[in-house]
Inverse folding.
């Protein structure tokens, strides 16, 4: 036991890491404040085999997609899917009161995946994650764009607002990415 502890301490002192997050690409290795919280969390997860990153808004015609996103998360989380919702008011449909926005997500739709506080997802003010997503595929034209990203960040697939979470193309893409 002492040898293991000494080895871990030596690795830490050497600046090495045994965490998978060290392999996380810079655009995913970003910290954002969680919705209606002071806690800050990284998008990057050790358990991730794929990420589904979604720009969301609490007062949008697509807001009911939260239910389907939660179903996708529950279906695939044990296989390594990480779902992260990026609340945004870029299209003027996010609740100005984060507590009310959180209620819509967590109470009305039962969201258990990570939801982040409002941030920009398009244009010059886009957060670092969405700058890369937009450049690699296309910037969100509206709320509830879905970006399926490989754990190493080398594969990015974009699914627009009208692609429902249960859409066969999206589900197949998730399954394929998780089997890589």
């Amino acid at each position: 036991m002492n040898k293991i502890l000494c080895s871990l301490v030596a690795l830490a002192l050497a600046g090495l890491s045994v965490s998978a997050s060290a392999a996380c690409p810079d655009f995913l290795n970003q910290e954002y404040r969680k919705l209606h919280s002071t806690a800050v969390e990284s998008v990057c997860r050790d358990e991730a085999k794929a990420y589904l990153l979604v720009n969301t808004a609490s007062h949008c015609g697509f807001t009911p997609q939260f239910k389907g996103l939660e179903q996708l998360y529950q279906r695939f989380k044990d296989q390594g899917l990480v779902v992260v919702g990026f609340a945004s008011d870029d299209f003027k449909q996010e609740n100005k009161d984060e507590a009310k926005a959180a209620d819509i997500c967590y109470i009305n739709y039962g969201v258990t995946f990570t939801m982040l506080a409002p941030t920009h997802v398009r244009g010059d003010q886009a957060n670092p994650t969405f700058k890369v997503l937009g450049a690699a595929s296309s910037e969100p034209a509206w709320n509830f764009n879905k970006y399926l990203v490989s754990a190493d960040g080398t594969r990015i697939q974009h699914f627009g607002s009208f692609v429902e979470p249960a859409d066969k193309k999206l589900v197949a893409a998730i399954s394929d990415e998780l089997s890589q």
